[in-house]
Design a protein that fits this description.
two-stranded antiparallel sheet; 4-stranded antiparallel sheet; 2 helices; 164 residues; alpha+beta; 17% strand
Length: 164
């Protein structure tokens, strides 16, 4: 009777190995996604912190403001080497906006930029918001087709500088 059970351990091992490999590979991929999300959040925070401390930032036209462009470049590229910090992450993936506290209700709302063209300038913001948009991380698990995961961290920092 013992001769019939000799191959059971080999058969069970062969059946369980794919599941164990999938578990290990999935855990590694989860770690990579979490690390990428953490790196994105750190990059977004550094851009928001830099922009919040700058003087004479033009909030009417953040796309052409030198302070905003410098902040976005610091988030995307290594300041020492100039290399891209995260593969596929560019300044076009970053979205910068401003928020103000409504004096009547006390609610946090987007800043009023309606008087930018009339020479009045933009309202001085209370918060700088920098977020990631349109960035996905591909999941690579052998023999499985998994959709890329969208990563979109957002950071809000109190504004301490001055606007134009």
């Amino acid at each position: 009777m013992r001769r019939r059970t000799r191959g059971n351990m080999l058969l069970e091992g062969i059946l369980w190995i794919p599941f164990m490999v999938l578990l290990v590979v999935g855990t590694i991929q989860f770690g990579k996604v979490y690390y990428t999300y953490y790196s994105l959040r750190k990059a977004v925070f550094s851009a928001a912190k830099y922009l919040a401390a700058q003087q004479n930032t033009n909030f009417c036209d953040l796309a052409d403001d030198i302070n905003a462009q410098t902040a976005l470049n610091l988030a995307v590229n290594d300041p020492n080497s100039g290399n891209q910090l995260i593969s596929g992450f560019t300044s076009s993936n970053l979205l910068v906006s401003t928020e103000c506290v409504d004096p009547v209700s006390g609610a946090v709302v987007p800043c009023d930029v309606s008087q930018c063209g009339s020479g009045g300038g933009a309202q001085r913001p209370d918060y700088i918001v920098v977020g990631v948009t349109g960035f996905t991380y591909p999941i690579r698990i052998p023999l499985l087709n998994v959709d890329p995961i969208p990563l979109s961290p957002q950071v809000t920092v109190a504004f301490m500088g001055s606007g134009m």
